[in-house]
Every structure is written in C-alpha cells, then in structure tokens.
Amino acid sequence: MKASSGIILNIFETQIDSNACDLTKMNLYILVTHGNIELSTKSISVADCHPKWNQVFYLERQCDKIEFTLYHKPLLLKEIPLGSCVLLLQNQNGWVHLLKDKQKIGSLKLSISNEILPLDTFDIQDLYHKKLSEIQILKNKVLTYRLKYKQEKTDFTKKKPNKLNDLINILKSEQENYLKTLEEVNEKKNNLKKQEEFILKEKDKLIQERERLRCDELEIRKNTFGLQNDFAELQRAGNKLSLQEKIFKASHRNSKSEGRNSGLPTSPYSRAKTNAGIPNSVSSFIL
C-alpha cells in the first residue's frame, strides 16, 4: 500500500468575542483551505457565540500553510466572513486568534498533526468528506425550498384571486423540486453510510496489521538476543581452546629442550614418556 504525507486536523470549537458581533443568533461554520483543497465543517446555529463542532479531517499535504475562515450563513442572504487565521503546518494543539481587519474577533480551538497516511485510506476519507459536504448543500437547498414555499403560501393569502392558478403552479413546481432534492439527499445518505462502513473495516484491518508487525518485531528482537548470546559463547570457547593449544605447544617445546640438555634418548618411546606428563601440567596451568 502506498503512503503519503498527510495532515490530521481536529476542529473543536470557537469562542466569538461579545463586542465583535451584534447578531443574536448565527448559523456558523469553518471553511478550511489548504492548497487546492477546501473543506467545511457542518453549520451550527447558536445564540451564545460559542459553536462546538468536534470534527476530524484528513488532508493530503500540499503546501506549508493552512487557512481557517469563520462564516455566518444567513438563511437567504450571502454568506458573511467573520474572521480568519493562517497557520504554518506544524504539530500544535490549542487556541488561535481569529482576525478581521487585523482586529481580534474571537478564538478557534484546534489541533494539527502531521502523519504518514495510507493513500488509499486518504482517498476514502476525502470521498467521505466530499459526500458529506454535498449532503450539507442539499440540506440547505431543502431548507431554502421550505422557506420559499412558506413565503409563497403567505403571499398567496394577500394576492388577488385571479392569480390563484399561477400560485398553485408555482407551489406544485416547488414541491416537485423539494421532493426531488429530498430523494437525492436520501440517496447520498445511503452512499455515505456504505462508505463509512468500508472505512471502519479498513481501519480494523490497519489495526490488526500493526499488531502483527509489533509481534514480529518482538520475536525478531528475541531471536537476535539469543544469537548474540550464542555467538559470545562460541567466541569464549574459541578463545579458551586457542589458549590451551598455545600452552600445550609451549610445554611440548620445553620438554624437548630439557630432554636434549640432559642427554636423554630422543626415541619415539622416550618422547611418548616425556609427553605423558604434559596434560597434568597444562591442566594445572589453566586452573
């Protein structure tokens, strides 16, 4: 399995300063930009300026910087950027300031971890988050259609009767669009569930493979330690035999020299008798 340098990103929560925003209720999300990758958290409606996401993202490393932007997403108007920050890609965990026009508007709690990620698993995770973003977009469309439907229904009571047919046709068309979008949402949910199950299976396989590699490493270390001990024993035995051989040769030379000096016969029988005393002397020397 191929591997690539990746980023594990955790986005926990945001604390917006009370004097930085005068809205009573906001629909907030974080947009993450890294190279040509853009990912967003889910949108959260809060009234206390303290949204919590606790979401995890897996990104392929493309450059040395990553940007976080906090957005307020009104129901009908264009999205409003509230603040942002740009960070270097290094392992960190804690709070960072969100700025707008060089003024602090709040803080973002996150963690960034540089990891070596399996490429295949990253592709699965990337697809997972893309599908999740698509479902979020579809949900927003459904919400827009609902609001539009309610608005049209309210206006219907105020308009003249001669526009009744036009309004009915509009409502039917909007209802068809709503049902179609709802069907797409359900289909995306089913696909997302299948992808999530596949990711969990792949994760279990990776855990089992890591455990097997750890056991193999322990076994190799154990065998290596045993071989080192055996080699040391053989080396000590070789040194001992070499020392005994040197002592034996030295004793043999001394015996021959003493025989010549004392005028003793040097026949094979005499040499055998002379050498008969060598083992005892060698053994005593070793002891």
Automatic annotation (TrEMBL):
Residues 168-209 form a coiled coil. SUPFAM superfamilies: C2 domain (Calcium/lipid-binding domain, CaLB). InterPro entries: C2_dom, C2_domain_sf. Pfam families: C2. Residues 250-275 are annotated as: Disordered. Residues 24-91 form the C2 domain. Residues 263-275 have a biased composition (Polar residues). This is C2 domain-containing protein. Keywords: Coiled coil. Signal peptide: none annotated. It comes from Stentor coeruleus.
